[in-house]
Specification:
The chain is mostly helical. It has helices spanning 3-23, 28-35, 39-63, 69-88, 93-121, 124-156, 161-165, 168-178, 191-210, 213-232, 246-277, 281-297, 299-309, 311-332, 337-365, 371-399, 405-433. Helix 3 (39-63) runs parallel beside helix 5 (93-121), helix 3 runs antiparallel to helix 16 (371-399) and helix 13 crosses helix 15. 49% of the residues are buried.
Length: 455
């Protein structure tokens, strides 16, 4: 596989998929008005895609251990593309919601399989720059999504947003031509385990986003049922083997915290710019965009530096910069919009470098037969961290409604700063113990040569 061609095309496809999570944010008021629905129903246009996207990422990653990547990509992008065509003509809430759910069912293919593809076909000495490219594409999509959403909604209406994701139908034949051919392997699919995984994540994410005690009780019951199933299943959908290594568990904790910081910050910055400085959606997007663009520009350098100097150095450096920026926001947030712009110019590239280094390091410690399930679980944990962050930040703002607005945001940024320091502490602990407790390869993997994945 020619990764110098495949990975940029893959990153472009992922850019479209990730941008689809943020383009609709600025269009929700218009959707609510046009369809005559409540704000609670309108929020499901975002939540349904987010929950389905996280779940499909795990499913595609797990299936990649036995099903060829080309086949999974063909299924995922076809579903996403056809759902987008359907969404262009959606004129009522139920059709729009169905289109978003179907989109999410296909969207997880690119997110879930990118890291698996990199670990399987790109040598370790070049893998860092490939993963950095994927991470930068995601970061740029987060920053440019609101701008694209605002422009398209203003001139073409919210149905026009679905046209953007139709572009994956152009990317699909190119990827199918370039991706390596693989032979399927025998696999006993754990239908009950997959169903329980879906219920676990959906119930817990719904409980957080809707602040529902009932859904929280459902999630606890499903988690208990899943734990019982894991003890009995011979080939469980979520392989427990990676979790036996404390290095992997620590990397999960760090990944959770990093996405808490990123999506929490992306949630807060537009609110600060709108409520403290009366900025329009377009002006908010233009303030955030330079950081996302800089992150994409630095991709080629960051990837090379990760390959040359190692994952842990960039994890530590990225964490330090993220903490400094969050401290800067908590101190000077109300001074000027320039504080937000300058801070995000540092925050976005640091986040991209940090998440790329973490994913590369996690790929290094996972046995090859467990890469699909291990990285799928990592991405699910990361996504849940982001969803939880948005819910908690919103709750903290609601609890402080009697305080001045600047004070509200200052306290929430102090909370994110505390999370960044906890993550840094976990990372320092990981550095002291890395390599001593990584999960051992399974019996069927014992003959594989993993010398290329050494430090």
């Amino acid at each position: 596989m020619n990764d110098k061609i495949v990975m940029p095309i893959w990153s472009f496809g992922l850019f479209i998929v990730v941008m689809n999570t943020t383009m609709f944010n600025v269009s929700i008021p218009g959707i609510i008005r046009d369809l005559g629905i409540t704000a609670d129903l309108g929020s499901w246009i975002i939540s349904s895609y987010s929950i389905g996207y996280a779940l499909s990422t795990v499913v595609y990653s797990r299936l990649s251990d036995t099903v060829p990547i080309r086949r999974l990509v063909a299924i995922g992008l076809t579903v996403l593309g056809l759902a987008s065509v359907f969404g262009i003509f959606a004129r009522d809430f139920h059709l729009l919601l169905a289109a978003r759910i179907l989109q999410s069912a296909g969207a997880g293919a690119l997110a879930g399989l990118g890291l698996v593809l990199a670990s399987r076909y790109i040598p370790f000495e070049r893998r860092g720059r490939a993963i950095a490219m994927i991470s930068a594409g995601s970061a740029m999509a987060f920053g440019l999504g609101p701008i694209a959403g605002g422009l398209i909604s203003e001139f073409f209406g919210w149905n026009g947003l679905f046209v953007v994701t139709c572009l994956v139908l152009v990317v699909l034949p190119v990827l199918l031509r370039l991706l390596p051919k693989e032979q399927p392997k025998p696999f006993r699919f754990d239908i009950l385990g997959a169903a329980l995984t879906v219920v676990n994540a959906a119930a817990l994410l719904t409980a957080v986003t809707q602040r529902s005690a009932l859904w929280f009780a459902v999630s606890l019951a499903s988690l208990a049922a899943h734990a019982w199933h894991l003890r009995r299943a011979k080939e469980p959908f979520i392989a427990p083997a990676p979790l036996k290594g404390s290095s992997y568990r620590k990397s999960l904790a760090v990944g959770f915290c990093i996405l808490v910081l990123n999506l929490g910050n992306l949630f807060l910055m537009p609110l600060v710019l709108a409520n403290l400085f009366d900025k329009s959606p377009m002006a908010i997007g233009l303030t955030i965009a330079p950081g996302a663009i800089l992150s994409a520009f630095l991709t080629r350098f960051v990837g090379r530096w990760i390959d040359r100097y190692g994952n842990l150095r960039f994890l530590l450096l990225g964490h330090a910069i993220l903490a400094v920026v969050l401290a800067w926001f908590s101190w000077g947030l109300a001074v000027s919009p320039a504080v937000i712009m300058c801070g995000y110019l540092c925050f976005s590239p640091s986040f991209s470098a940090t998440i790329a280094s973490l994913n590369n390091e996690t790929l290094r410690i996972l046995p090859k037969p467990l890469v699909g399930s291990g990285m799928g679980l990592m991405q699910l944990i990361q996504f849940f961290g982001g969803s939880l962050s948005v819910a908690v930040c919103g709750l903290l703002l609601a609890l402080q409604k009697d305080l001045p607005l600047a004070g509200d945001y200052k306290h929430v940024y102090e909370f994110l700063l505390l999370i960044s320091l906890c993550s840094l502490g976990m990372l320092l602990w990981y550095r002291q113990t890395a390599g001593n407790d990584a999960p051992k390869p399974s019996a069927e993997a014992s003959g594989l040569n993993r010398a290329a994945d050494s430090r």
